[in-house]
Amino acid sequence: KDKAQRTFQIPLQTIPFVLQRKAEPLYPAIYREGLQEQFLTLVRRRMEIGLTDKDHDVEHNFGVIEGKVVQIDPGRFGLFTPSCNMEHEWWSATHRYWRWVEKRR
Length: 105
Fold this sequence. Notes:
Strand content: 15-25%
Oligomer: single chain
């Protein structure tokens, strides 16, 4: 059902889909033990497997489910190309987080 309460049938055998669970927003939860490190490790692991993310909105793209940091919006993932700069990708993926941390010190 959509917001207008219209019902639709979707043939799941022929349409790719992802089930998404509701996550607690990352920023309110980030000060719990280990979550800061989990966030940074998740970004590092994504980069290690060769994925870039053109959407750098940490606040809305990461959350916490059952005590684990997860990325809840992988919609702008892409593959690294030879022209990708790993240092710039790391900065892009984490600079908003570090700015948020600095404002709260």
